[in-house]
Amino acid sequence: MTNVLASAERRCLVWLARRMPAGVNSDHLTVLALFAMLMTGISYFAARLNRFALLMAIVWLAVNWFGDSLDGTLARVRRQQRPRYGFYVDHVVDCIGTLFLLAGLALSGYMNPLVAASVLVAYLLLSIEVYLATYCLTVFRMSFWGLGPTELRLVLASGTVAALFNPTIEILGDEYRLFDVGGTVATAGLLVTLIISIGRNVCSLYRDEGPALSHVDGRPR
Q: Does pLDDT of 207 surpass 60?
């Protein structure tokens, strides 16, 4: 984790984990994180009828941070780590939660469904690349360009507050939906990160393993 808030966030999470009731375990927090993301999507959808539902979306984003960020920390503090189980469940939940979030935005009227779909596709492509890199290089990156999940939640929450007062933004004399602009920028950022990450990891693996050699039957090893 190389994101801007990583150090302060880590201290905060450890403080919370040490005060968590004994009856609460990391699985409970993971389920809470997924439920919170579902409610975030529902809140964005509800904003179609009442814009103040955007405030509830921010609240549920905070709940999602609490569950998603604290589950692993709680397991480590209590020395109850289950590395493979935790990695698998946590990131399946992340992908499903992102689907809930972007589906809610797509149905909210604040973001074009095609823009929401493009963000989702770019996110899933980068996730696949990160998970493959974790398997091949045994290094899991949770942040890029100083941004991690927490910073992205803060950016989304800030955009949501702005959309509550004015859901559009003017660019070169034309008006666009704020979330469409943000979604387009997010898609571009994710795709650029994907391309750079692929290039870096391919070069690293090539240096480690060298060019492919052939068997006597001509098939690559």
A: yes
